[in-house]
Amino acid sequence: MKYLRYMLIFVPIAVVAEVLHWSPLLIFGCSCLGLIPLAGLLGEATEELAIHTGPKVGGLLNATLGNAAELIITIVALREGQLALVKASITGSILGNLLLILGFSLLLGGLKNGKLHFDRGLASISGTTMLLAVVGLMIPTLFELLHEAQSGRVDFLNTNVNDPPLNALSLGVAGTLILLYVLVMIFSFRQPDNGLGGRAGFDEHLLEEEAHQAKWSVPFAIGVLAASTLVIVFLSEFLVGAVQPVVKSLGISELFLGVIIIPIVGNVAEHIVGVQVAYKNKMDLSLAISLGSSMQVAIFVAPLLVFISLLFGQELTLFFSVFEVTALTLAVFVASHVSVDGESNWLEGAQLLAVYIIVAMAFYFTGLVQSGAELSPPAVVLR
Questions:
Q1: Using CA atoms, how far apart are residues 164 and 302, in angstroms rounded to an integer?
Q2: What are the tens digits of pLDDT across the range 207-258?
Q3: By the 8 A CB rule, do 34 and 176 touch?
Q4: Domains of the chain and any CATH numbers
Q5: DSSP 360
Q6: Which residues have C-beta within 8 Å of that of residue 344, sequence separation ≥ 6?
Q7: Rounded CA gap, 377 and 187, in Å?
Q8: How far is CA 167 from CA 157, 298, 299, in A?
Q9: Which of 117, 154, 160, 172 is nearest to 284 (CA)?
Q10: In Å, what is the CA distance from 17 to each residue of 75, 233, 236?
Q11: Higher-confidence position of 347 and 373
């Protein structure tokens, strides 16, 4: 992962570009590239602290800070009122972990090691938890659509509505999902052979296998953690501020940007680790990273953002578009079906990647339709 640190050169470039008011596209690109190594440093500092504190406290640290970079980006977007971007980022993060990263892990791991084996219990519980999380997103969506149907004003594309019953339901569902996350962490800590949380719950065996000895002292790790967090906040400001100009200049939608680009930026370092350990045939750890990260976003990050939004006076609800909820449901079903038997191969990894590409294309065109762009049908020439 050290090679990612060379990308830190984009941090000062992004700062200069922002100060001198360079092209928004350049600001956005440099901010994205600069956030990648910073997210890696943030995760590395967390892991170093976890080694010093031991597996139990370390698991709690990972459970809290496992998706810190992405959480910071979405909080900045919340403060700027970019609710649609936040929801798209949540959707994209879950889809990316379940389809893109798990797909790459199975593909490369299978090509290198043949048939892959992993803990069925880990996959089963993770799949069940993700299904429950999707239910938590689906219920507010169905509730609001039915409420709008009763009022005769159904809008399948606009999810930024101010509906008091929906706001109350979202808060209740968010609180329930966070409680579920706490229960999952308690179960994980009491089951040392089944680290459920990925980076959000390394168990003692995985820590001994992967971490070995701490390379950083506690003060140095805390310093890196604090510095990385501070710089991520600034770069997130630059990135979010450049979203609208980039959308207009590139002709893409905010939905596509949030679903595909931003989640990758915040999770590249973690994704690389997941694929690397799969290549080394350590599939339990690889699944703990991909499934654990998606689980953390669904039942901790997303509900937490609902409560954080109250601080900014513009409530974030769990009312997602029908297309987003459908895509998430299908992704959970496919990922669970692939992993529930405790074994896999490179072909199933390729199939997950194919599903991700199909979903990405669909979000691209859905975003264009939502933004009002005209999609001209191909010309038909009659001979």
A1: 19
A2: 444 445 778 888 898 898 899 999 999 999 999 999 989 988 888 888 888 8
A3: no
A4: 2-364 (1.20.1420.30)
A5: H
A6: 106, 110, 115, 116, 118, 283, 338
A7: 53
A8: 18, 18, 18
A9: 117
A10: 23, 16, 14
A11: 347
**Residue 347, both tokens:** 């072909």
pLDDT digits (tens, 9 = 90+) for 306-322: 999 999 888 899 999 88
Q: List CB contacts of 333: < 8 A, sequence separation 6 or more.
A: none
Q: What is the DSSP string of 16-67?
A: HHHHTT--HHHHHHHHHHHHHHHHHHHHHHHHHHHHHH-HHHHHHHHHHHTT
Mean pLDDT of 73-95: 91
Q: Which residue has the tokens 């990273």?
A: 289
**Contacts of residue 320, Cβ cutoff 8 Å, sequence gap at least 6:** 87, 91, 137, 140, 141, 159, 328
Compare 109 and 56 and report the one with higher pLDDT: 109
Can you tell me which residue has the tokens 């910073």? 38
Share of the chain above pLDDT 70, in %: 85
